[in-house]
Amino acid sequence: MSKLGKRWEFDGVPAAFVTRSAVNGHYCITFEREESSLEQIEQINWSRPAIRRLTDRQDELGLPEGYSFKLTDVRYQHAGRYFVAEVRTASQYLGDVSAYQAQIAELNEKLAEQQAALEAQSAQADAAVSSMETAYEEGVESNG
Predict the structure, then answer these.
(1) Which of 64-68, 73-77, 78-82, 101-105 has the lowest mean pLDDT?
(2) How big is the CA angle at 132 (ends 130 and 135), to the nearest 5 degrees?
């Protein structure tokens, strides 16, 4: 029977809670021995674990989203019969960004179209100014 409760699952392995370490980017995850084995903890894909919250408490500390992790240490507390796995953030991943890439490509196309339209308008304005200057000179010359 669980003494600490099950609040998280990491790749299907139940965990009691997550705490921050004193070192930035390091986290400690407590696994009860009755619920998890050392082998299960070591087999978690820490580079991209499937993390599932088992409670409704949204304010409860968990691992930051969008990161991969590296398992740095696993300690066993015999008196409490639990494992403490220490992980650190390894790298941040953005997930699937193909929709953003398509949006950027679309915006770049619109920008190119607008720049072409602006250049055409600028050329028309230059032609109009040149035409007015020519008409002015002809008018001055003919009227003396």
Answers:
(1) 64-68
(2) 110
C-alpha span between 113 and 115 (Å, rounded): 5
∠ CA 33-50-87, rounded to 5°:
60
β-strand partners of 84:
30, 75
Amino acid of residue 144? G
**Cα angle at 7 between 31 and 49, to 5 degrees?**
70
Pick from 96, 73, 91, 93: nearest CA to 83? 73
DSSP state of 136: H
Measured CA to CA, the distance from residue 127 to residue 82 in angstroms comes to 82
